[in-house]
Write a structure and sequence with these properties.
mainly alpha; Glycosyltransferase; three-stranded antiparallel sheet; 12 strands; 8% strand
């Protein structure tokens, strides 16, 4: 592990700025494949994550270049990606002229809205609040189903597509992280209907989350579901002082820990490692679950081990998506890099005895 927090932060920050993962249009690619030496398509969801990450890097370093990159990403979402006719953020955006599937995801919309709200708070520019409001209304109006929310709709018709067993193509407790967008919109606007929407999804998630894991007989797919289940646990943080939420948070952390330990020899995801440790820090700060120092140190070392030292510009400083056995998978992506870098920063704060930032900074 690097000896100072600035070392891994600087490397991760340079990856975001210099690797080419942010395309000239301002949007961020879903990932870079080093075996193919190519970016995947620009993802509106990942661009939302990118905004949150760049703003967090700006607040951590006070370097203006991160704010400038976040503004480019935000303006891409508001001025280019937003489908004015459909009043929705499409799933992907092709920079090479190839037309991607015309789909919109409920989960993605929440990540985008949170990124735009963070950019509005950082700059005061009304453009980003207006876009966040439009995205939040789209989440409520376009995806609503009886007692739940459709995961995906077609554009421009906004018809729900056929559901599949894969977690991202079915409704589930993981959608609670996207509902944080409504919680934050309520804070930003004072409009109580946004808080009621968050509460509705919270009630749904609490009533269904115990059946989400393991959810599949194949260990690799269970690891993927652990990633999604951590989204549910992250979505609990605003109300973790409530008994039902605190109990779900503690039990959920223990379930993720047990399952991830069993599957890791076969398949390990860096984002799951990072998400689990981030949750431990916040649960400890809330007084819900004491932090085991030795275990946290081990997990921090695991997370740090995914940062790439390859001197190639497209790789250096980013975090690999995962590994099978001892072999790294050939993907480096913004979400994994964001989660891992933030986790290591929180670990440093813990070591220094410093308080954690509020849950709203959670990427």
């Amino acid at each position: 592990m690097e000896s100072t927090s600035s070392s891994f932060l600087e490397r991760a920050g340079r990856w975001f700025l210099e690797s080419g993962i942010q395309e000239p249009c301002g949007g961020l690619a879903r990932y870079y494949r080093w075996d193919l030496r190519a970016n995947a398509r620009v993802s509106t969801e990942i661009t939302g994550y990118g905004i949150s990450t760049l703003l967090w890097l700006h607040s951590s370093t006070n370097e203006s270049k991160y704010l400038e990159a976040a503004l480019r990403a935000g303006r891409f979402l508001t001025r280019v990606a937003w489908d004015r006719a459909a009043e929705s953020f499409p799933f992907e955006f092709a920079v090479d002229g190839e037309r991607p599937a015309a789909l919109a995801y409920f989960f993605d919309a929440g990540i985008i809205v949170r990124g735009l709200l963070a950019l509005w708070r950082a700059t005061g520019q009304r453009e980003f609040l207006d876009a966040a409001l439009a995205g939040g209304e789209s989440m409520a109006g376009d995806f609503a189903a009886e007692g739940e929310f459709h995961p995906i709709v077609s554009l421009p018709a906004k018809q729900p597509i056929q559901r599949e067993p894969r977690w991202s193509r079915s409704p589930g407790c993981y959608q609670l992280k996207s509902a944080l967008a409504w919680f934050e919109l309520c804070e930003a606007t004072g409009r109580p209907e946004f808080r009621l929407r968050y509460q509705r999804l919270l009630d749904y998630a609490l009533s269904t989350h115990t059946s989400f894991l393991p959810g599949d007989p194949q260990p690799e797919r269970v690891m993927d579901r652990l990633h999604a289940y951590c989204y549910f646990l992250e979505g609990l943080l605003p109300c973790a002082d409530l008994p039902a939420c605190s109990e779900a948070l503690v039990a959920g952390i223990q379930r993720v820990d047990n399952l991830s330990r069993a599957i890791t020899p076969l398949f390990e995801r860096s984002d799951v490692c990072a998400q689990l440790l981030r949750l431990r820090f916040f649960a400890s700060q809330l007084g819900a679950l004491p932090l085991e120092g030795d275990r946290a140190c081990q997990e921090a070392e695991l997370v740090a081990g995914f940062q790439l030292d390859d001197q190639e510009r497209r790789l250096w400083g980013g975090f690999a998506f995962g590994r099978k056995g001892s072999q790294l998978l050939p993907f480096v992506n913004p979400a994994s890099t964001a989660f891992c870098a933030q986790t290591l920063h929180l670990w440093r704060l813990h070591q220094q005895g410093s308080p954690l930032p509020p849950w709203r900074t959670l990427i």
